[in-house]
Amino acid sequence: MVFAQIFRLYWRDPRFLERMMAALLPAIKGVQEEHAAKPGEKRAAEALLEGANHEVDPPESNEEEGTEIEVDATLTISSEERLRALDFEQMSTDEVARAKRILAQIKLPVQPLQSRRLMAASRGDRADWRRTLLNAARRGGDIQGLARAKRRTRWPNLVVICDISGSMSQYSRIVLHFLHAVANAKGAGWAKVHGFTFGTRLTNITRHLATRDVDAALAAAGAEAQDWEGGTRIGACLHDFNRDWSRRVMGQGAVVLLITDGLDRDDPAALAHEMQRLQLSARRLVWLNPLLRWEGFAAKAQGIRAMLPYVDSFRAGHSIASLEDLAEVISRPADSGEKARLLRGL
Length: 346
Fold this sequence. Notes:
The protein is α/β, with parallel strands linked by helices. It folds into 3 domains: 1-25 and 37-45, no CATH class; 118-153, no CATH class; 158-344, Rossmann fold (3-Layer(aba) Sandwich). Helices cover 40% and strands 13% of the residues. It has 16 helices and 9 strands. The strands form 2 sheets. A 6-stranded mixed β-sheet has the order 6-5-4-7-8-9. It has a 3-stranded antiparallel β-sheet with strand order 1-3-2, with no helix packed on it. It is elongated.
């Protein structure tokens, strides 16, 4: 992304340097900016101007030694709120680092599921006839009390299928940091967290998520996935998942997070078929799409139109705040996000 912005600066846009310089200047309250920074511009500006602040010696301070300096921290909270709402694609290098630290602290708890199997419980809400008869048989057929039972509880799996194609690269890198934190969180309740990446092919990165160091984990995942920042074949990759992995990771009522912009040029009918299979296998299918950050977004792309009817919830996935909302989305089965509104426009 940084290389692409610098390339455009050098060959196509003579005023691009001025806008990058403006992107690094603090915003002035009440002044309407002439140009909003495009994706990656702030990171390109930092890459070009790295070290420029060290070329000029700082002015000598006229303050006397021992002067007490008061720091006004009233804007700290507003700065953090702004970062939480900021688009991942618009973040500077420093903001990306801060965002990753915040995402590492986010929890994604889940409620246990009620199993069909029963377990003995002195105050259970069901009669355990089998155990009642076994106890009576030991006493010569005399039934002295009614054994009770209750349903067992179990924890679901979390399955994350993340698009790492060129249009999703910046989002997917940050989302995978979040996925690593969820996979290594204690007390979150998930039975197992499975991670898959796809561009032109499907890659299982679950074993790399077990590595405690996030940088080492994602470096290993990136080395195994050879299609970073390439093309997108959503239908073909979902077909591979449904064929090779669905029965292995979806057998316990798994919650599935599908993270993609839905921009696919393959056969929409085949894509719709694979999405339907995926939804039928999942307890809940949540689609996070960064394109929802745009006001007035409509499902016009054929890939999005093919996928949308088969998700339980359709939500934005472009900021820290959107990922923080996931905990509530998962716990509210009736939350369909933007799905209903967009289906009315089809």
